[in-house]
Amino acid sequence: MSGTIARVKLAVPRETAAGELRVAVSPDSIPRLRALGLEVTVERGAGVAARFSDAALEAAGATLAPDRASCLGGAHLVCAVQPPSADEAERLPEGAALVSFLPVSTPAAVVRQLVLRRITAFSFELVPRISRAQSMDALSSQASIGGYKAVCLGAARMPKILPLQMTAAGTIAPARVLVMGAGVAGLQAIATARRLGAVVEATDVRPAVREEVQSLGAHFVELELEAQAGEGGYAGEQSEEFLARQRELIGQRVEQSDLVVTTAAVPGRRAPVLITRDVVERMRDGAVIVDLAADSGGNCACTVPGEEVQVGGVTVIGPRNLPATVPTTSSQVLARNVAALVGHLVRNGELVLDFDDAITAGCCAVHAGEVRNPALREAVQAGAVPSP
Ligand SMILES: NC(=O)c1ccc[n+]([C@@H]2O[C@H](COP(=O)([O-])OP(=O)(O)OC[C@H]3O[C@@H](n4cnc5c(N)ncnc54)[C@H](O)[C@@H]3O)[C@@H](O)[C@H]2O)c1
Fold first, then answer.
1. pLDDT tens-digit profile of 67-87?
2. What confidence score (pLDDT) does residue 1 get?
3. I need a surface site. Which of 4, 137, 150, 345 has the fewest CB within 10 A?
4. Could you tell which of 124, 234, 250, 253 is best to mutate to test the pocket of ligand 1, judged by most ligand atoms within 8 Å of the CB?
5. What is the pLDDT of residue 229?
6. What structural domains and CATH numbers belong to the chain?
């Protein structure tokens, strides 16, 4: 199935979700979008939090719209970071295409509006993890920044410094950092902690990451456990017996660490609990846990999403949306992902929906009044917010 829409107006409204400081275009991406033959309209102030002034966006070739309604009016393609709220979805131009994050946890009311408005919604979560789509992989670009920022956050809360120092007053031992889950965020956390001079070890259920961990100068902790393989290179969901044994084996490493960064996730499932309260209580006074899986339930039993809690002398941080805390860099790379995905969807200045193409078909969540993605469809049918 394929269709075309002529004279594409691409609109970028200001983000309205709490704490979202990123924006879907940058002064660098606008010329790329215009080179595709698109007219780019940005709502005034949309880039301000990311430090892209209206003047800079205008100088790059964008038309500024004074408000959301005029920005979206007549738009064929809307590019955003967060999915719209239900009210915002109701005001999207009927039949337009939308490019944004659209997690399975998106409220059912939002997805229903997208269906009713016959929006064609492309989701960054659904971009296939294939080499051809790497430039469009916003999950990776943002996870990598999250991994970096998690270590910075942990380091800033620690009562110790990370590197070995040989001083006239004697030798300062390096801090011990443990990274649990060595996917995109975990590998960047390892690299950042190593650059800061810590002794780093990492664990993952996918043995394939061992070499990557070692090449970053970290020790890969081998657990004598047979993990369930997942699909598409991802980790599979492990049994409760497996996780209980994993917690037992890794517990001692956690107790000996000054900083633990957890990133373990299984797509579409609640994050596995890898650190129990008992283990946190046995950790060193002053130790810090930064739980990047906070939004999908948390890898630590003490994590409170969006909060920093004290458990005895241990600080447990459950950050939400860490990439938004460094909005300039995150928006720069995200805007490139947006431009690459839009570039894939546009030919000769027209939006071409070629559903025989693996990338277009793979990341199209909603089209022609139907939810195409099974996980999102189930969530809408259930009417409830499922696990992320
Ligand atoms: N080819 C591409 O373009 C491309 C791009 C990005 C990522 N990838 C691949 O996708 C995979 C994962 O990427 P991600 O970072 O989005 O993953 P993710 O966010 O889903 O998971 C993070 C990490 O947690 C690990 N994990 C899950 N359960 C665990 C447990 N019980 N204990 C310890 N660790 C556990 C996973 O194995 C993964 O490494 C990797 O294989 C990565 O190389 C491929």
1. 999 999 999 999 999 999 999
2. 43
3. 4
4. 234
5. 75
6. 4-137+328-382 (3.40.50.720), 143-324 (3.40.50.720)
